[in-house]
Each structure stands twice: as structure tokens, then as C-alpha cells.
């Protein structure tokens, strides 16, 4: 491969990986289009076998290594999707694989990677430290280091997703791509701009990790920390990718944690599809910046689905709270038999479903023969909440609907 990625490189990668990667669904979302006044098409890369677009680049790299001769083994550093993709395709191709993961990597991701036959080494508190150890092992054991994004063969594989989208919808106005290390956006931009120089490429980063946005705008920032979009939580993009981004990406949009949570919720409730934080970032960009995309035929890449089930459950419950579908009432009651029954009957009378009840006696400021009653209730909407509150007051209870 040349030092500059071309459309021919990406087309060659597409032919190379065609038999072992999935040409994933790409279709219009009528509901989301109506909500955003845009024409939104979703590319379901969360349907790849390892549930992310990383399958493409990993497979292309491994196949090229095989073509070049016998490979003693490969090694990669990753805390998630790249690890699974390299491990899976290496197992398929009979190539021994070692994956170095940070020591705080969730056990589910470690076990997923091991299930594909890879040797997993836990080392370092960060990806940078894991990468350093991986390179040390690579040199010591003569293994080929497979970088997750700063590699032309990887970038070419990721760019194949653009070919598939433009084959279905050649008149796309815009493609929205999540940016972590930049391999996906570099590949997509190279392919798409070569086919249609007028198409817009919009990159998306999460607020806590605006590495490309800040680099392009000369901003120095010490942001970081926990994020639901850990798949794009990269502090420094790859050099190869940054060069492509400077030339071909039209804009970088930053999105909040809350907007990503809302996007995950909408994709599950409307499209019945699970996405991780990074995978939902493209929809979050449209939800947060409707004026940019209004009236355009826009493709959103749903880059992955590897979200922890506990995090997914928390997101769904938090969205119910934010929409007033789960609320808390504080009711002052007489601390006597039957009073709780009266309260629960009043809530049930209006269709409320009590999820949790907590009495406060010792830590409450009410008189000794009274108690504070906290009730978590599932309701239909804000109107029902007010109806329940009014009924409680009508029955003589000192009640309030808590805001937080």
C-alpha cells in the first residue's frame, strides 16, 4: 500500500473482506427523520459479528499479512472493539493473537476476547501504557503489532463502509462519523470524497475528549475522565488520520453525555437496536445541532453495540426519570397502621405504579408521631403526576413532587 490512501486501496479492501464481513443494513429511519426534519439513513455497523465496524479494518490487515507470508502471530492493544475484532478474525485465519488490555478493562470484555482464542495480557492503567507493553512483547516475541487506527491497512478496511452506503444512496448530502483515533472517519472521508467531492463529512467527538476538534482549532485542553462513549475517548488521534481529517472533513461536532444517552434510548425504543455510546454519537450530533442537518440526506454510522448491560439499563431508567415517567413523591404521614395503605391506594387509583417505598423516622424533621414517606412511582406523564399529587393533598396529606 502507498503512503497515501486512495479510493483504489479501499475498493481493494472491500473485495478482500467481502466474504467474511457483513454488508450491514443501510436504510432510512422515517421516525427519526420526522423528529429532526432531516432525511436520516442509518448504517447498522452494530450488526457486524463482533458488533462493531472494527471487523472491517482488522480483517483487511490480517488478510494482507497472510498474503505477505507466514505470520508468527499478531498483537494488539485495545480495551474493547478492536480487541474482539482482531481476536475473532485471527482465530478464523489460524493466526495466534495476543491482546494487551488495561488492567481496569471490564471483565466482560476480557472474557469476550478470550472466547475467540486470544491470549489476553492485562497491563497498564491506560491505553498508552498498554500499548507500550504490547510493543515490548511484539519485539520480544517477533509479533506483528496491529494498531487500532493509525495504520493504512486498518483505515482502508474501515473506509469500505462508505462504499456500501454510497452504493445504496449515491446522492447522500452528508455522512456523520464518530471520531476516536480517527481511522473510521479517515477511511470514510477518503472514499466518499473521491466518489462525490461535494459530500459533507461531519465528525463527532464527545465533550470530554475533543482531541481532533481542539487540535484543528489550536485549543489546549486537559479534559478527560469517565464517559459513556469510551469507544471514542481518545486523547490523541493517529497522525495518518489527522492528515486526512485536515484535508477532507468539513466540520467536527461535540456532543454531551446527556445527548448520547438520549440517542441510545431513541435508537432502542424507535429502531429496536442497541448501540454503545460511541455508536449513538452520530444521532446525538443531529439531535444537538438540528440546523446543520435540516433538509439534508444524511447518513449516520452506528459504529458499535458493545455496551455493558448495566450501563444500558441505567441509561433507560435515567431517560424515564428525565421525561417524568418515573418520579418521587414526598408525603408526610401519621406513623400509624393503615396510613401507608391509604397513600398507596390513592396512587393506584390514578394508575401510578409504586416501584420503591422508604420511611424516614430518625432522620426526618417531622414530629415524633409522624414520618416522611418517599415513594418512587412509575407514571404515564406529567399530567398524571399532578393528578396523583392533587389526590394526595385532597386526602389531607402534606405531599410534594420532588424535582430531583
Short key terms for the protein model shown above:
elongated; four-stranded parallel beta sheet; 19% strand; 16 helices; 404 residues; alpha/beta
Structure explained in plain terms:
The protein is of the alpha/beta class and 404 residues long. It is 46% helix and 19% strand. Helix 7 crosses helix 8. The protein is elongated. The model has no long low-confidence stretch (mean pLDDT 93).
Secondary structure: elements and pairs:
Blueprint: H1 7-17, E1 26-28, H2 30-36, E2 39-44, H3 54-68, E3 74-77, H4 81-93, E4 97-101, H5 107-114, E5 119-122, H6 127-141, E6 144-145, H7 152-168, E7 174-178, H8 183-195, E8 200-206, H9 211-217, H10 239-248, E9 251-255, H11 257-271, H12 277-288, H13 290-293, E10 297-302, H14 309-322, E11 326-334, H15 339-349, E12 353-360, E13 370-378, H16 382-394, E14 398-402
Parallel strand pairs: 2-10, 3-4, 3-6, 4-5, 7-8, 7-10, 8-9
Antiparallel strand pairs: 1-2, 11-13, 11-14, 12-13
Helix pairs in contact: 1-3, 1-7, 3-4, 3-7, 4-5, 7-8, 8-10, 11-12, 11-14
Amino acid at each position: 500500500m502507498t503512503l497515501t490512501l486512495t479510493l483504489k486501496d479501499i475498493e481493494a479492501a472491500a473485495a478482500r473482506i467481502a466474504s467474511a464481513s457483513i454488508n450491514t443494513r443501510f436504510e432510512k429511519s422515517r421516525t427519526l427523520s420526522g423528529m429532526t426534519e432531516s432525511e436520516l439513513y442509518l448504517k447498522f455497523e452494530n450488526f457486524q459479528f463482533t458488533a462493531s465496524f472494527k471487523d472491517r479494518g482488522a480483517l483487511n490487515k490480517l488478510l494482507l499479512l497472510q498474503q505477505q507470508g507466514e505470520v508468527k502471530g499478531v498483537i494488539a492493544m485495545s480495551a474493547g472493539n478492536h480487541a474482539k475484532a482482531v481476536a475473532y478474525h485471527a482465530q478464523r485465519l489460524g493466526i495466534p493473537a495476543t491482546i494487551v488490555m488495561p488492567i481496569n478493562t471490564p471483565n466482560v470484555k476480557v472474557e469476550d476476547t478470550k472466547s475467540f482464542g486470544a491470549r489476553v495480557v492485562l497491563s497498564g492503567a491506560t491505553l498508552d501504557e498498554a500499548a507500550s507493553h504490547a510493543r515490548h512483547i511484539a519485539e520480544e516475541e517477533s509479533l506483528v503489532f496491529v494498531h487500532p487506527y493509525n495504520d493504512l491497512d486498518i483505515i482502508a478496511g474501515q473506509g469500505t463502509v462508505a462504499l456500501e452506503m454510497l452504493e445504496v444512496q449515491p446522492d447522500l448530502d452528508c455522512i456523520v462519523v464518530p471520531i476516536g483515533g480517527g481511522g473510521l472517519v479517515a477511511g470514510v472521508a477518503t472514499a466518499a470524497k473521491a466518489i462525490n467531492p461535494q459530500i459533507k463529512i461531519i465528525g463527532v467527538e464527545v465533550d470530554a475528549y475533543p482531541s481532533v476538534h481542539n487540535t484543528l482549532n489550536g485549543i489546549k485542553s486537559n479534559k478527560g475522565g469517565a464517559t459513556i462513549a469510551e469507544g471514542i475517548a481518545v486523547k490523541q488521534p493517529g497522525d495518518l488520520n489527522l492528515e486526512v481529517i485536515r484535508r477532507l472533513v468539513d466540520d467536527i461536532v461535540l456532543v454531551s453525555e446527556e445527548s448520547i444517552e438520549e440517542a441510545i434510548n431513541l435508537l432502542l425504543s424507535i429502531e429496536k437496536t442497541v448501540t454503545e455510546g460511541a455508536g449513538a454519537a452520530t444521532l446525538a450530533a443531529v439531535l444537538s445541532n438540528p440546523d446543520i442537518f435540516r433538509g439534508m440526506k444524511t447518513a449516520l454510522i452506528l459504529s458499535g453495540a458493545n455496551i455493558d448491560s448495566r450501563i444500558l439499563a441505567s441509561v433507560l431508567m435515567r431517560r424515564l426519570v428525565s421525561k417524568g415517567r418515573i418520579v418521587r413523591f414526598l408525603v408526610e404521614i401519621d406513623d400509624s397502621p393503615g396510613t401507608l395503605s391509604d397513600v398507596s391506594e390513592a396512587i393506584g387509583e390514578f394508575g401510578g405504579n409504586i416501584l420503591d417505598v422508604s420511611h424516614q423516622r430518625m432522620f426526618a424533621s417531622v414530629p415524633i408521631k409522624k414520618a416522611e414517606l418517599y415513594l418512587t412511582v412509575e407514571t404515564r406523564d406529567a399530567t398524571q403526576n399532578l393528578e396523583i399529587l392533587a389526590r394526595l393533598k385532597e386526602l389531607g396529606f402534606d405531599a410534594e413532587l420532588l424535582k430531583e
